[in-house]
Sequence to fold (678 residues):
Amino acid sequence: MELQAKKVERIRIYDVALAAGVSVATASKALNDTGRMAPETRDRVKRAAVELGFRPNAMARGLLSKRSFTVGLLTNDTYGRFTLPLMAGISEALVDHGVSVFLCTIEDDPTLAKIHVDAMLDKQVDGIIASGKRIDRRLPVDMTHLPVPVVYAFTDGPDDSVRFVSDDAQGSRDAAQWMIGLGRKRLVHVTGPTSFASVQARAEAFSDTAGSGAKILHGTWSEAWGHEAVAQLWGGDRPRPDGIFCGNDQIARGVVDALRERGVDVPRDVSVVGFDNWEIVAAATRPPLTSVDMNLKALGREAGLTVLAMAEGKQVEPGIRKLPCRLIVRQSCGGVAAD
Amino acid sequence: MELQAKKVERIRIYDVALAAGVSVATASKALNDTGRMAPETRDRVKRAAVELGFRPNAMARGLLSKRSFTVGLLTNDTYGRFTLPLMAGISEALVDHGVSVFLCTIEDDPTLAKIHVDAMLDKQVDGIIASGKRIDRRLPVDMTHLPVPVVYAFTDGPDDSVRFVSDDAQGSRDAAQWMIGLGRKRLVHVTGPTSFASVQARAEAFSDTAGSGAKILHGTWSEAWGHEAVAQLWGGDRPRPDGIFCGNDQIARGVVDALRERGVDVPRDVSVVGFDNWEIVAAATRPPLTSVDMNLKALGREAGLTVLAMAEGKQVEPGIRKLPCRLIVRQSCGGVAAD
DNA sequence: CTGAAAGCGCTTACAG
DNA sequence: CTGAAAGCGCTTACAG
Fold:
């Protein structure tokens, strides 16, 4: 038995018009609730459309309206850790508007990026959302002179563009304040490389909140660095921290594991907070991690609605839009969620 | 300063024809390398097109050709653990054919699924790839009578459909054989719930390879279950396993952590193999996990090319297509990669 | 209140 | 060798 694309004939507006006994023009107006006509006629057409299962051909419509009801999401985050929540938000916001989303993953390959952008433009996307894995790097393709609006989410863009990022400083402050509120006195920040803008923003906010004496250790974004940092902190005879704010959940997991291996009780002896609220890591840690959530889904929603508004010709204020982070309370600090 | 979609006028074939001093019909034929004409004319048109940066409007073309050069990827795997590699393969295979991919995540919501499918059909997708997170469950939407071809990848589909899955039995056999080859004598399989078809397939293959005496423990897909299983296995006085094949990498990570906490050396005393080769888990485990990779990217590539072939009207054999798994050797077993 | 005509940006027989 | 005409499936002034 062989399988072949069954040539199901699609219903055109012509078929609907025929069935309802009206012209194609009238059928179109009836279905779009435009023009003036006898209510009875409109009803008859609509019934015929439903009966026949008519769905208008978006390509034909698009040719006229110059709207394709598609947008493209371009990303260099192949792992999808940031892209997926973003995509979920975009999709959720746009599906109600009948907009579908092309996903294009481009590693860091400029040629591939160009190919994908061109393919999307050929398909007349209404707009493009550029996204990445860090807010201080750009995608390897220039999108400043495209015939469609571009919005940047979790990636850098030109000065006159709209860029959505999460509020690293606020997230960091919230984390430190949470531990201080729980009575912790000796906070330490164990985080990623200084080359990341968000590392700097968080570190600064951490210092402001925990005091300039509070130590900050920079390393890689890995569990291994979490282990290593604990080895350093517990190595000498210096006073040990009782609260550790980590730059991401993987570091936090390493820290928690290392502390347990040293017989240090989390959260009794030390509170630990992570960053990213990456479910798979945060929930599997023993105890589960209290972590800062960047609300990437909400960020995606905003980015989607904004690019859509621009596609509809609405005026939009350029600049960086910081969306708030939220502390997700689990068991690694003690304390209980406020809400 | 306000930002508005700059109304860049797009170049139409009419502009190219004008610039080259030919008719639109001739321009079309020149650019598509069809028809007969003076080579000089063709060149002139092509040069004009390049100079003006002409890119044909895919909607207009699609209206004629009934091809949109888009496909949809429908999935209920919100976490993206299976979808992302699949998507990468699909995209990689199709970008060369000028095909872009709509990604639609539908949780398990039938209403949402229908909305997405309809939206894609309206946009005249050339085909749909249905995907999921287990091969024995279907998406909550019937796609048997669509006007476009549908291919199933890592999800169940109707009997007369094309379904791509990875070869669980072969992956399982390879894992067991690898440990046997390293001299392990007392293998155990710690895996997920029996309700999963792939759990059964792997368990059966494991028994065939390791012997029917080899124990199989079923639990959840979590690190916690890995810990628990080790507690059971090391609990009594029974002979302890020297090789543990885990149903996924999370279980394997739990097993490895639990063994270390008991002072059991991995890989010296016990070999551990995971399943999924989920980089983030496998690489962070101490020691890093040897794991079975399902080659989801290759699976995506196949699925993409197949749905494209069907869209082009080619005959395709229905049925289940099992693609081989591959053992990725790291340090949790001892032994060294063959290649 | 309804329909004929023109047109969106292309391609493809067909005529010259 | 080249172009005028028709048409893909719609929508939208415009005429009646």
In short: The first strand of chain B starts at residue 70 and ends at 75. The mean pLDDT of chain B is 93. Residues 68-166+296-323 of chain B form a domain with the Rossmann fold fold (CATH 3.40.50.2300). Residues 22-26, 29, 35-38, 41, 60, 62-66 of chain B lie near DNA strand D (CB under 10 Å from a C1').
